[in-house]
Amino acid sequence: MLTQIINGHILTPQGWLKDGSVLISDGKILEVTNSDLAVIGAKVIDAKGMFIVPGFISMHSHGGGGRDFTEATPDAFETIVQAHLKHGATTIFPTLSSTTFDVLRQAVVTCDELMKQPDSIVQGIHIEGPYLNKNMAGAQWGDYLKDPDAEEYIPLLESTRCIKRWDISPELPGAHDFARYTSSHGVLTAITHTEAEFPEIKAAFEAGFTHAAHFYNAMPGFHKRREYKYEGTVESVYLMDDMSVEVIADGVHLPATILKLVYRLKGVERTCLVTDALKYAAYEGGAIDDPRYVIEDGVCKLADHQSLAGSIATMDKLVQTVVKKAGIPLADAVRMASETPARIIGVADRKGTLQKRKDADIVILDNDTNVRCVFSYGKIVEGTNTMIH
What we know:
Number of domains: 2
CATH class of the largest domain: Alpha Beta
Distance between the termini: 21 Å
Shape: globular
């Protein structure tokens, strides 16, 4: 079946293409052309002057739709994936927060099975912890936190090819050996929940830590000890030119000024937008079922209002936030949600840009950056197909 999307502004690697069309066949992009003349035999989708952009790559999300990836079941995975897919996340790397290795092994089995399916939205696993600095990890993971143990992580990594990213605190004993092993096996290795200053960050980068998780969050900035001042993790990461970062761009975890600063200093090529979403993202079940938390101001907070508990954002919300609040051009906002994460996590050969022979994962945004239609492998996602009519 040949499908043709016409009459839109198409985001290509070379910039915006006005009034062109995208041809789709067998789940792949057949061609991106500068003509919107109807192709004989094609099903024509009229984008009505809206923006045709690559599907978003969700590379840090813990849950959604009322479920959490640490449930580690196919049903939980599928529920979460479908919740985020309707908001434009056409590729997802399920994030597992600190938990037991039994749960990690179960999640790996689930992920391996899902990745065997044709047209899988799940493209690999992302593990956050349990090798985290207890001073920076929060009480919710306290029972699981530990130092890196090669007798745990090596057998797990050797049992599967689905682990694509792993985040730990780089200052822990054994962290550099961990990074040398993971990075040499093609796993994106990231710093997270850390107190590291410049010498530690420089050494971590040289050991294989090439990415910073939820930049600014769970890490110190410039600070003072007694009469002397010290750079924090934040400034240290800025000084690592080749270290990429990600930001929780929900407008709450970071103010718009900081989002703009990251964009200016790290640039589109080194900055990813992530949700870091909890299970209450895209949740339609009414009141939340955990008395420890409340949902307010578009974010999940501790019930005592002493701290943020996590994000409930979806990928489209991130794009809207950086465009409307931080004043970042739409093309750059979309690239940070698609092209850049696809390249950094290793799926750019088939995802992240609208190019010939890549998967036909496409989002149509209106002039207010709302999602109006989502294509996954060339098929319109159920629940979004009425948005452009």
